[in-house]
Amino acid sequence: MKEGIGVEERLFRKSDKPSEDMSCNWHYKKSPRYNDFASTDASGKWCIFVSPADVDQEWNKISGAIESNQLMCAKVSTALRSIGRDGHVICVYTRDWADRQDLMRAREVLQSLGFVKELGYKRDIDTRNRIYGSGEWYLRV
């Protein structure tokens, strides 16, 4: 007799697709060229908000750009992290938020991938210190 998938297997389901993964909060991807990257007070990220229906396709675009060394690293929220939220977030990192040239280079790569709507850039130090809204340093491009 064939048995169905158990409740525990469904609740903690692991998947390569962010839209289906219930085993962790984030999927991460780093370029081999930038393998030493770690979040610091100087680093920051472009924040891309996407719908559950589009997250896998959009993550594949970002992942491909990382594999071809166009972008340094990124993370995407999974189905587990997105419970109770409107959608997913993809964070595309840069090493130094004060390096405007690198910020804009990464933004241009994102535009070439089809992310043409306005995006926000947030410093990691503000995220770590839980500074949101009017108190945070935030760039919109």
From TrEMBL:
InterPro entries: Bles03 (IPR015034), TIF_eIF4e-like (IPR023398). It comes from the Bacteria. PANTHER family: UPF0696 PROTEIN C11ORF68. Belongs to the UPF0696 family. This is DUF1917 domain-containing protein. It comes from Cupriavidus pauculus.
